[in-house]
Amino acid sequence: MTDFQQDHPDGVILTMDQMSLYLQATTARVWYPKGQRPTVLVSPQRDCLHWYGALALHSGQEVALNLPTMDSEATIHFLKHLLIVFPVQALLLFLDRAPWHRGEAIRAFLAENPRLQLIYFPPACPQLNPQEHVWKAARLAIGHNHSRLTLGTLRQDCAHFLDQTLFHFHWVEKFAPLNIGAV
User: Fold this and answer.
1) What class does CATH assign to 2-24+44-182?
2) Are 21 and 143 contacting, i.e. CB atoms less than 8 angstroms apart?
3) Can you tell me the mean pLDDT for 11-18?
4) Contact 93, 60 (CB under 8 A)
5) pTM of the full structure
6) Mean pLDDT to the nearest integer, 143-171
7) First and final CA of the chain: distance in angstroms?
8) Which of 93, 103, 82 has the alpha carbon at shortest distance from 129?
């Protein structure tokens, strides 16, 4: 086991996850003038967008892509994107154990890209993944009580939110400086 930060002082530690954002708005609490009722337009369609995202723990930078599916091929596409966004840095990526995050195609990709290391969270522990909090913030800002009529508008608004927001969570500072080893 090696100390990632010691071995790679310029390395980047990220956490990764996916979310589906639906055109059909979800309702949540909302402030409105007394005596008036809020109106939320609801689409009968269950069309959705799939997002892959990775949060750089030290900077709060979010890297996100809208991809058509959540499978091994899309995962590899996103991993390639991370290698482009961080062109020279070693990457340590924490992620869950979704079936599309493992398997022969992923192992082959990692063998070809040694500056990328994966560490899997324990099973059934989404609360350990800071990326989940990014998705929660995105759903609050974009997914609840909205009246977007097209997936294109929803995609654009979500991309803008993710691109323009730095995500700093008070407990990330406690997590990020740990001596995290790769196996």
Assistant:
1) alpha beta
2) yes
3) 96
4) no
5) 0.82
6) 83
7) 6
8) 93
Contact at 8 Å (CB) between 142 and 157?
A: yes
Residue, of 66 and 25, whose pLDDT is higher: 66
Tokens (6 digits) for 102: 């493992």
Residue 39 exposed, middle or buried by CB count within 10 Å (0-12, 13-18, 19+): exposed
> φ, ψ for residue 107 (rounded to 5)?
-60, -40
| Torsion over CA: 43, 48, 49, 55 (sign) | positive
